[in-house]
Structure formats: C-alpha cells, structure tokens
Write a structure and sequence with these properties.
It is built from eleven helices and nine strands. It has 320 residues and is α/β, with parallel strands linked by helices. It folds into two domains: 8-201 and 264-286 and 303-309, 3-Layer(aba) Sandwich (Rossmann fold), CATH 3.40.50; 202-260, no CATH class. The strands form two sheets. It has a seven-stranded parallel β-sheet, with helices on both faces. It has a two-stranded parallel sheet with strand order 7-8. The chain is globular and about 60 Å long.
C-alpha cells in the first residue's frame, strides 16, 4: 500500500497519542487528513501541528465524535465527504480507544461496557461507516489498532483487565476475518491489525475524563472508594491511604505510563506506517510486544500463570 501526497486518511482518536503522531507523519507526506476525537481542544492542537508541517494545499479537517455512536460516525463521514469534496478515502485508521472497566466480577458495569464499546464498537462502526468510501478508491487500507492485550488478556497477576482485553481480542479477530472477506469482495482494499505494547500516550490520564470522572487528581469520593476496594482485593495498600493519596497515586501512575514507556507515540506511528507500506497485515509495535507475542505463542498454557511476568521480563533483558 503506497502512502503518498494527495491521498485522504481518516483517523479516529486523532487528538493525541498514536493518533496525533500518525496525523503528523502523514501530514508531512502531504496526505489529506480527516480527524475525529472527543476533545475539540485536542483536535485543534493536532490540526495546528499538522498544518505547521504539511506542504501547502494539504487539507486537514476535524470533527468531534464518539466512535461508539453510529450516528455520530455517520455525521463524521458526511463531514469528510463535504469538507474534502470526495466520495472516497485511501486510509482508515480505527485508532480511538480508552482504558478502564478492568473488573468483570466486582467492577462497575457501566465503565466496563463503555470501555468495551469504545475499543471494539468504535472499530466495527468505523469500518462499517467508511467501507463504501474505501471501496470507491482505487486502492485502500483499513488499519485497526488492537493491542498486545489483544493476544494476552492480562496486565499481570492481581490486576483485572477484562473489558479492554476482550475488546482488543475482538479487534484482532475481526481484522483477521476481514482478510478473506476483502479478498473475495473488495480485493483492492486491504487491512492490518496493529498490536502495540507499552506506548508513551496519555490514555491512562484521559480515560477518566471519557468515563465522566474528570481529572484523576479530582476524582469523586465514590470512585476513590471503589479504587480503594480494588486495591484491597488485590492485596494492595489502599486501606492505609487517604483519598488524596489515592488520587495522587492514580495520577502519578498515568504520568509514569506516559513518560516511562519504552516506545514513544512517534516511534509507534512510524512502525505502523512502515508496516502498512510493506503490506503487512499483522503489525507488532515495540520490543515488548514482540517478546510477549513470542512467549505467549511458545507457552500459551502458561500465559496466565503468576510467574509468567518474570519469564517475560527475563526475555526482554536477554534481548536488550
């Protein structure tokens, strides 16, 4: 799949993280962009940064949309057609995603279903809504962002991670099933599933806003109580912590996740675009994702043993 000036790429979750990094690198190449996100401020920042690096004449549009809502995605599609004056696109990056909804047995059902809906339904609906515009192009590609949690449904022992993992497994399976479907019914359209490891994004900080809880440093008391209970069930130290200490701990975890990642969002975007150019349908992002994938494939029955994390860490150290 060639990526070249004059093409049109649709990116969901284009306001920050991998989505913004993809937008910037595509803009530099002269690719026209249609970005959507829940945050208008983040979209405005992405657009301004893209305009600053894009060749003259590159069109960059933005649209506020919740990808789990089909009507909002249909409105986004109509805006793309109107603002770019076209009936086709070449690239669709179903990238939007949030965290949360970890516990199935004891967790908050609304948060669970919200996480699953954005991370899975957003990909499915994005493909549904934009497939006619991809088919209308001479050549197109659907790029669905899953996760290393799309083949390993865990963050390690003692941490429930069910909604996000279930959604990312669904994204992986859906994309693999599309390979044959597209070959049979739209052979000029290809697809790829992206499985990042730990990437330096603000997903851990932003997800609280999407779930309606606001800034982690101002988390409502009932949410703090739920976190404390979760920490206690997992053998953590929640019982001895004040509400303010829990808020600060959660915020710091989000900062550490963003700033301590082994792979930056910019590096991730470059790996993804290189994979698309090479025609790969399975794109692992980050050495940690590569190592984890190899370990899970080699020892699938051990993947959820308590000592599996130790095996993985030793593997990463051995491979530099």
């Amino acid at each position: 799949m060639k990526i070249e000036a004059g093409q049109l790429a649709v990116i969901t979750g284009g306001g920050n993280g991998i989505g913004r990094a993809l937008a910037l690198q595509l803009a530099q190449a002269g690719v026209h962009l249609a970005l959507c996100d829940l945050s208008e401020q983040a979209l405005a920042e992405s657009r301004a940064q893209c305009i600053a690096v894009a060749p003259a004449g590159t069109r960059i549009s933005t649209f506020k949309a919740d990808v789990s809502d089909e009507q909002q995605l249909l409105a986004f599609r109509d805006a793309v057609m109107r603002e770019h004056g076209t009936d086709h696109i070449e690239l669709l990056f179903n990238n939007a995603g949030i965290g949360g909804g970890g516990g199935f047995v004891h967790g908050d059902r609304a948060e669970w279903e919200r996480t699953f809906s954005v991370c899975w339904q957003g990909v499915y609906l994005g493909a549904r809504v934009f497939i006619p515009m991809l088919i209308a192009s001479q050549r197109g590609c659907i790029i669905n962002v899953s996760s290393a949690n799309g083949f390993w449904a865990s963050l390690g022992p003692g941490i429930s991670h069910t909604a996000y993992s279930a959604a990312k497994f669904a994204v992986k399976g859906f994309t693999e099933a599309l390979i044959t479907d597209l070959k049979m019914n739209a052979p000029h359209v290809s697809c790829a599933v992206v499985m990042p490891g730990h990437i330096g994004t603000s997903i851990a900080l932003n997800s609280s806003h999407v779930h309606g809880h606001g800034d982690l440093r101002e988390l409502p008391a009932e949410r703090v109580a739920a976190v404390r209970e979760r920490l206690q069930r997992a053998g953590g130290r929640g019982e001895g912590m004040s509400d303010e200490q829990i808020r600060q701990m959660l915020h710091q975890r989000g900062v550490d996740f963003r700033d301590g990642a082994p792979t930056t969002a910019e590096q991730a975007a470059a790996i993804i675009l290189d994979g698309v150019r090479a025609g790969r349908w399975r794109i692992l992002v980050g050495d940690d994702a590569v190592a984890l994938d190899a370990k899970v494939r080699a020892e699938p029955e051990r993947a959820y043993d308590d000592d599996f994390n130790g095996v993985l860490i030793r593997s990463l150290r051995q491979n530099g």
